[in-house]
Amino acid sequence: MEDNEDCGTKDIQFGFRRFRAPAKRIYANRNVFLLDVPPNPIASWLLFWMPQLVRWLQRLLPEWFLPTTVILKERNPTKADSYENEIDTYLHLRSLQGTHIPRLFGEVTVSDPHAQRYQISKRPTPAILLENVEGVSLYNLPTEELGNPRLLEELEDMYNLLTEKGVVHGDPKLHNFLRVDKKIVAIDFELSYPLPSDITNEHELEELKSEIKEREKQAQEAKLERLVPGPVIVNGLRVRKRTDLPPSGTTTHNEQRGDEGLSTLGAQLPKVCSRHGRVGPRPGTTYGG
């Protein structure tokens, strides 16, 4: 999740069940929320005493057997086609739900008591409830993990499944794929469309690989900048890179010239003083007295 903005509560109508749940916006500037679903005592009782019956009821009445947290994705009024398209894609990929894509629980209507005070229309907003997949976005993975050959294989496996189902994801960005238990889960199918029978999803996979390479390049440049954040002055010389610094234990040109000058002065001083008949200080002379 990118943000955790508290948005108060939302009234959800899902099938025969109506409940109010706290909501947190998880993506900036998008109507996508994390809902805390209130517990259902009847469902808990059935799960404990009649688990076999629950499996059948979950398919018939999913609203009564929701997990404690779900994703609420409201329809954007300016992108109604994308909303319908995503629902159709989830239904088409039903066999991948719960494993390689989030599970779609169903369509709901949402009423926001606070927002409706300032709206002319009081109509509820259509939305879908999705499984809250606990994973890490590929965009947030460390760079060294992005370049892992195993991860690239998992991405290829994901796209092979989409190709088999005849679907193009439509938005191949790293933030639309999650790493979960050594597999890739794809999310956000608003821009998906049917895959023509004569091509594969290779073009989208190459786009993702290009984004990974770009991230690796940026990380390498940032690493170099941290090593040498700016110009460095060494012995009066201006250097920008660590490689420009003299190796440890070596003597610079300026230092060498300074040492030679001191050696020459030390050798000449006794000769100069001997011309005047003395090498050291005058007898009986004290310093600092």
UniProtKB/TrEMBL annotation:
Descriptive protein name: Podospora anserina S mat+ genomic DNA chromosome 6, supercontig 2
Coiled-coil stretches noted in the UniProt entry, renumbered to this chain: none
Region (Disordered): 241-265
Database matches in PANTHER family: SERINE/THREONINE-PROTEIN KINASE YRZF-RELATED (PTHR37171), SERINE_THREONINE-PROTEIN KINASE YRZF-RELATED (PTHR37171:SF1)
InterPro entries from the UniProt entry: Kinase-like_dom_sf, Meiotic_Drive_Suppr_Kinase
SUPFAM superfamilies, A to Z: Protein kinase-like (PK-like)
Lineage of producing organism: Eukaryota, Fungi, Dikarya, Ascomycota, Pezizomycotina
Source organism (scientific name): Podospora anserina (strain S / ATCC MYA-4624 / DSM 980 / FGSC 10383)
